[in-house]
């Protein structure tokens, strides 16, 4: 049965393979599942870096401050 998911082949160094194998045993999951979870986490970290960079630029260029109460008004 064909899959709609994309596949990726990786070549691991010995150290990376040992670490991935150890994590796989600890989590009792296949190495591919552990690697995918780590990849997803790192993508989130990279996205967060982009948002932080954008926020820092906005703070420097247009520091319009509002109170916490005003920011959350109508949301709570």
Taking all Cα atoms into account, the compactness measure Rg is 21 Å
Biggest sheet features: none
Please report which band the strand proportion falls in: under 5%, 5-15%, 15-25%, 25-35%, 35-45% or over 45%: under 5%
The class by helix and strand makeup works out as mainly alpha
Which geometry do the CA atoms define? elongated
> How many strand units?
0
Describe the structure.
The chain has 76 residues and is mainly alpha-helical. It is built from 3 helices and no strands. Helix 1 (14-27) crosses helix 2. The relative contact order is 0.06. The model has no long low-confidence stretch (mean pLDDT 90).
Q: Concise description?
A:
By secondary structure, the chain is mainly alpha-helical.
Secondary structure layout plus pairing:
Layout: H1 14-27, H2 31-61, H3 68-71
Helix pairs in contact: 1-2
Kindly list the characteristics that best describe this protein.
mainly alpha; 64% helix; 3 helices; single chain; 0% strand; 76 residues
């Amino acid at each position: 049965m064909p899959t709609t998911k994309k596949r990726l082949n990786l070549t691991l160094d010995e150290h990376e393979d040992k670490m991935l194998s150890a994590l796989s045993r600890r989590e009792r999951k296949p190495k591919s599942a552990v690697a995918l979870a780590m990849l997803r986490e790192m993508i989130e970290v990279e996205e967060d870096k982009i948002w932080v960079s954008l926020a820092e630029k906005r703070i420097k260029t247009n520091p319009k401050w509002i109170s916490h109460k005003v920011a959350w008004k109508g949301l709570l």
